[in-house]
Amino acid sequence: MAAISWEEPYCAEGNNCFRIGTDSEGNAYIAVAGQEDQPLTDTREALRNLILEIKAGKADHLL
After folding, report:
1. Element (H, E) at 58
2. Considering the chain, what percentage of its residues have pLDDT values greater than 70?
3. Beta strand ranges found along 1-63 (DSSP E)
4. What would the pLDDT profile of 36-61 be if each residue is shown by its tens digit?
C-alpha cells in the first residue's frame, strides 16, 4: 500500500471532522479524523464526484 498524504481535517460546526487523502497510485481516501487507519478508498475521480454531489445538495436527505 502506498503512503497516504492527508489534507488538514475538515470540521463542520458540531459535526465529526473528516480528512481526505491521496496516494501516488491515483487512489483517494476519506476518513474520520483520528481514524485514518480505517479509510474508505476509491479513485480520485470517484471521490471528486462524491464531493460535487454532496455540494450540490444530493445527500441532504441523509442528514
Report:
1. none
2. 92
3. 5-6, 10-11, 17-22, 27-32, 40-43
4. 999 988 888 888 898 898 888 887 77
CA 27/CA 19 separation, integer angstroms: 14
Between CA 63 and CA 4 the distance in angstroms is 29
Count up the domains in the chain and report the number: 1
Tell the residue number behind the cell numbers 487507519, with chain if given.
37
**Would you call 52 helix, strand, or coil by DSSP?**
helix
In terms of DSSP H, where are the helices of the chain?
44-55
Domain of residue 46 covers 5-62
C-alpha to C-alpha distance for 35 and 56, rounded to whole angstroms = 27
Helix, strand, coil percent content, the chain, rounded in steps of 5: 25, 30, 45
